[in-house]
Amino acid sequence: MQKNYTSHGPDEQTHGVASGRVVILGTGGTIAGTAEDASDNVGYRAAQLGVEQLLVAIPPLANYLLETEQVAQLDSKDMDFATWQRLALRVEAHLARPDVAGLVITHGTDTLEETAYFLQRVLAPKKPVVLTAAMRPATALQKDGPQNLLDAVTLALDPRASGVLLAFAGQVHSAEQVRKIHSYKVDAFASVDGARLACIEEGQIRWLAAAPVTGDAVGTKALSASSIDAWPRIEIVMNYVGANGSAVRALLAQGVDGLVVAGTGNGSLSVGLEAALREAQSAGVSVWRSTRCDAGPVTSSTEALPSAGALSPVKARIELLLTLLWQKCGAQSR
Ligand code: ASP
Description:
Elements: E1 2-4, E2 21-28, H1 51-56, E3 66-74, H2 81-95, E4 100-106, H3 112-123, E5 128-132, H4 145-156, E6 163-168, E7 171-174, E8 178-180, E9 189-191, E10 198-201, E11 204-207, H5 221-225, E12 234-238, H6 246-254, E13 258-263, H7 271-282, E14 286-291, H8 313-328
Parallel strand pairs: 2-3, 2-4, 4-5, 5-6, 12-13, 13-14
Antiparallel strand pairs: 1-3, 6-7, 7-10, 8-9, 10-11
Helix pairs in contact: 3-8, 6-7
The protein binds aspartic acid.
């Protein structure tokens, strides 16, 4: 369902920011979560409030030209391909509207970096698509959602912003670099290798770097052409002390299209795990090597299994998913 939140004219200038309409797509998460007890920061239920209810709690947003749409209502630990497909198509449709300056997506923090990367690779939008979230529910004594959402709208209207971004705890991160790095702190996200893009301070965006210009969009054709059931199955396995490849063989027996291995260090693998992964590769499974380290690339070498570059295991999984999905549809993914 779509709703107009305010009725200002399209040319209106507010708070010194560029004019234009921002569409806010709700998907749930802690930002829309509620607890019985305001002092309870963990015993809450995510995805309880609609996106419009979130806006009501932020009086300064009344000055903006906003529109809302509830695309999903879930705890992002349960994010799924069907919701990704729907979300990508709704984002694409809104971005195509000349009256829309940018988009905001409210999301749970747990899988936010995956949705952000997915949307970036599928759409590579010129206009900003700003994800935001919260670590505390909407009922908390010290809720972080309202400020994050206000900052996200500010960022979505900034003419220097483009691509899929995260506005969170006063910081701006790119979809490529962002990772959730803390399970509880309100400042829960970081950009790998110090690649944070900007700070948002009292409604002012202080850019530290230009928004990244990223490669071509994979596009939504393959997403809409195939049913979700036909999307490739990509699983993540890890190297650790005693890893012997039995998990890989179990997956092979079940049927899997691709495997991302979170190797140790620079993508190193135990002898047993590497042997199992090579068996998988010989059986036609695509195998990419990533690292379980919090940052840094896996350097490629001709003797080793293919490297996923600097992508984290979860983002490498998305890249491999899109690559295989696109191959299936007989088109080029990059
Ligand atoms: N489990 C919640 C979710 O990802 C956590 C959050 O939103 O912070 O939706």
